[in-house]
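#structure-requests
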Amino acid sequence: MVGVAVIGAGYWGPNLVRNVQATPELRLATLCDLDVERARSVLGRYSTVRVTSSLDEVLADPEVEAVAVATPAATHLPVALAALEAGKHVLVEKPLASSYADGLKLVTAAEERGLTLMLDHTFCYTPVVRRLRDLVRGGELGDIQYIDSVRINLGLVQPDIDVLWDLAPHDLSILDSILPDDVHPVAVAAHGSDPAGVGRACVAYMSVRLSNGAIAHAHVNWLSPTKIRSMIVGGSSRTAVWNDLDPTQPLAVYDRGIERPDDESVRVSYRIGDMVAPALPGGEALRGVMAEFAASIIEKRAPLTDGRSGLRVLAQLEAASASLAAGGTFVPLTDVNGGAL
């Protein structure tokens, strides 16, 4: 069993604690938080798990082989870097860091030491996204023609980041997970507004140009009175539609679309086929995150959402910010990080 310390007992920390304890390959050794009483309340009165407010104490403990970081995003770099330098494997919440340059420091530190650095991109471990990945990479949808995502609700306005940095990492991490190896983002454009006067964009539209000529689009919004979580992945053969708020039929695959006929006098023809709702397994996505974290450490391999995947998400977020500042023009990703992703 891999000894794990969870750093942070706030909003997300208790979920990490619960799922570490439910993963047979992991053993929760320590819960660290500046508020020791809050940490104790998360564990319960009869827990034998150690509680501390000292990160140094955690990193000096030989029984702690890995840490799961659930602290504010601005602290990800110092906390995760200290853990890597202490020889610990690291699972960190999104985003990887506050900038591409900081994220690269973490990736470099992990790779130089042969340690696992993994992002908790939870959606990538849901049964729906796993099936979407299989559909896209297995060729069942054909060539990807477009991806359209909506992630809106009456959300918490963040004090230090705009809506793109808050919500779009979910969509970008899903995109990174499902795209085939020969298709990748090449440029990003973003438009946003601040109708609530909070000092940062709280409604935004982001377009990602892909290397095969297709486009992926994400609409994110903190101000919508209704909650919508949907994604359409359009292919040349079939189209997958995901409604995350439908518990009975979250994923549907449509054999419907437009085709180019052999008769040149006819511009297009329409294919009207069946709709299939695939059966999906149950289970909590965060349980899958922890299982992958444990497996990557034990098997000494890169996890599905490794540090490089986090870098690719950061590069697109920085390009989106640059596009917003430039009035919405497409920003090549190489202009952001100085090299190809």
